[in-house]
Amino acid sequence: MPATRNTRTALSRSAVRRGAAAAAALPLLIGVLASCGYGSQADKPEDKKANAAADGAKKLSASEVRIGYFPNLTHATALVGVQEGLIAKELGATAIKPQTFNAGPSEIEALNGGSLDIGFIGPSPSINGYVKSKSSNLRIISGSASGGVKLVVNPDKIKTLDDLKGKKIATPQKGNTQDVAFLNWIAEKGWKVDPESGKGDVSVVRTDNKVTPDAFKQGSIDGAWVPEPTASKLVSDGASVLLDETDLWPDKKFVITNIIVSQKFLKEHPDVVEAVLAGTVKTNEWINANPDKAKASANAALKALSGKELEPAVIDPAWKSILVTDDPLAATLKTESDWAVKAKLIEQPDLAGIYDLTLLNKVLKAAGKPEVSDAGLGAK
After folding, report:
1. Which of 91, 124, 163, 263 is the most exposed place for a label (fewest CB within 10 A)?
2. pLDDT digits (tens, 9 = 90+) for 56-89
3. Where are the alpha helices (DSSP H) in the chain?
């Protein structure tokens, strides 16, 4: 897989404190640990930094851009980029209209329906959305995050990986990115599980991340293969980490979050898309250069959406396990697609054209950074 250097830029602690203070005044919207949250919200009184255009700001071809993401640490680029105004700065007079979602299908539906222009989303819904639209709906235009997925278990019941046989392990949703990875891991162990029902040598229990911690406390599941911060929440409730999915991948990198765009919006407003990507690249620079400040900023953004921030026992280990990156790690998306095919969750998809990294590589080149690869799956 191609590796790319994650770039960085600085922001003051006072900006983070101001963002947190502004966030506290926002209405309660959704639960943080849903990985989290339900539905999408339309316009709300966003932090002024997200939308304020400076006097004399540059004029782009659209007056606004609607950006979707999850209130989830694996969407840190969006959380921090909006919270700190780093994306808005690149957009000039074009306003950001943020929307949040609880799951990939609802975000894809919004993109299909024309109510969303750009979104942060996992690989499985990216693939499904592209294939179901017969290649006409979206393009992946950048990476956003790698890692942040763990197998956590009840240490009283499960002490080794072999102990998983006969146990009940949660994944977020049938066919989602973590579900596919876990089914593939089970198959490689030589165990059998029906992908539709989840029944077999291991019971795969599809459970919304919001309720997984309660299910664990009640003993209805013995563990979970889940993204952050759910994994660290379970650990804070007594679970132990048995496996970090990062350790299963070459170079310890795999895509967990992409940036996608409506093909219509990309065609009509390439300058706006380029500006958003300039903002995400600079956001990733700052996050990696200032991990503690960025963690505080992400937590402030979560508080703005839910009224709650993550406790240190949850956010500290969760944050360390996520790598923000401009590289879409395209080869790993192809691998994840192959796993879904092997599990008989999808038929072999034609992914030719799912990526268009033209504008991202333009931004990276202008910043003196190496270009990234589409693994042969780019738009022609």
Report:
1. 163
2. 577 899 999 999 999 889 999 999 999 999 999 9
3. 13-24, 48-51, 76-83, 86-91, 104-113, 123-132, 177-188, 212-218, 230-236, 263-268, 270-289, 291-306, 312-320, 330-342, 358-366
